[in-house]
Amino acid sequence: MRPFDLTTLDWVALAFFATVWFGYGLLMDRLAHGGTLNQRLRAIRRTWMGEMLRRENRMADSALLGHLIHSVSFFASATLLVVAALSGAFGALDTLHAALSELAITGAPISRRALEARLLLLLVIFVYAFFKFTWAIRQYNYCCALIGAAPPASEPIAPERRAALTRQAAEVLSVAVATFNGGLRAYYFALAALGWFVHPLVFIGTVLWIVLVLLRRQFFSHTLRSVQAYEAVLQTDDSSAKVSRE
User: What is the pTM of this model?
Assistant: First the structure.
């Protein structure tokens, strides 16, 4: 008896989905010095934390972090509702199976157990996203604590100490952002998983489509070019400031 009545093509599509999803995440994490949009923003956040240490009034920094926490909290709440809805779908599986079987878009009707597998995949994806979002919220709160503990701008700070404070605060903030991005990425791949309700080949196709969309945004988007130009201006300003101090 086949588990969940899945065909060989179903298992191939599922393995392809898992490989691409986690492989893409690992690729983005490994490109620490690459030219992706995420990595360029890591440099921007490092500059942000450096400027934060130079400011006496840090209300703007707190407000920006508060906005980020609010955004992540919204996604965490929405994800919890989706998890509840998917859990409830298992209680109405017969009705759902009958409704999907009547849709022409599904092609050959899938069995009840195959439908369970598809719903279970969506449930796993959104549970994963929920844990990502809640962990991101905690990390943002840790970053708030680091900003609160930062020495005042009027206090003389050795360059080495300032650089260390900047680096560690930016690292905590960047890890929080990466965790949040992992939750958002789960939403994209949940959209790809909907293709499995149609056909395993459609499932594979939607996975490829999602990856192409994400890669384009990371490597070829107008936003990336603008961030790179902004970073170049910041570096020019820093170099000019160092020359003037000398």
Answer: 0.88
